[in-house]
Write a structure and sequence with these properties.
The chain contains 6 helices and 2 strands, in the order αβαααβαα. The chain is mainly α. The two termini are about 20 Å apart.
Length: about 120
C-alpha cells in the first residue's frame, strides 16, 4: 500500500512540475503515472550508476551536480514516455529541482511518520 501511495504522490509531483515549470508538459493523469514510474525506474538503475561514477564531481560541486544528473534522467524519461515532454535541458534542470522539492513536501504532508525514521 505504501508503494502505491508513493507512486501516486510521485505522479502528482510530476503533474505539479508540469504546471509550474515552463517547458515540461504532461498529457493527462495516465501519462503522469507512467512518467513517475519511468523516472523512478531510471533513477534506480541508470541514475544510481551515474551518481556513483560522478561522485567526485558531486563532491567538488557540493552536491549540485546531482541536479544535472536528475535533469538528464528527466530528459531520458521524456524520451521514453509518450505524453510526457521536456523541451530543453534548462526546463529539465528546473523540473528536477522542483520535482525534488515537491516530492519532499508531498511525502512530508501525507506520510509524516515515514520521514521521521
Amino acid at each position: 500500500m505504501r508503494l502505491l501511495l508513493n507512486w501516486v504522490l510521485s505522479a502528482l509531483a510530476v503533474w505539479i512540475v508540469a504546471q509550474v515549470v515552463p517547458g515540461v508538459y504532461v498529457n493527462g493523469a495516465m501519462a503522469a503515472l507512467i512518467a513517475a514510474l519511468a523516472i523512478g525506474f531510471i533513477n534506480a538503475t541508470i541514475g544510481f550508476v551515474l551518481k556513483v561514477l560522478t561522485f567526485p564531481l558531486t563532491l567538488l560541486t557540493l552536491g549540485l551536480f546531482w541536479f544535472v544528473i536528475n535533469a538528464l534522467m528527466l530528459e531520458l524519461a521524456s524520451a521514453l514516455v509518450p505524453g510526457f515532454h521536456v523541451r530543453s535541458f534548462f526546463a529539465a534542470f528546473m523540473g528536477a529541482i522542483v520535482l525534488s522539492l515537491v516530492n519532499l513536501l508531498l511525502k512530508a504532508i501525507v506520510m509524516p511518520k515515514a520521514n521521521q525514521r
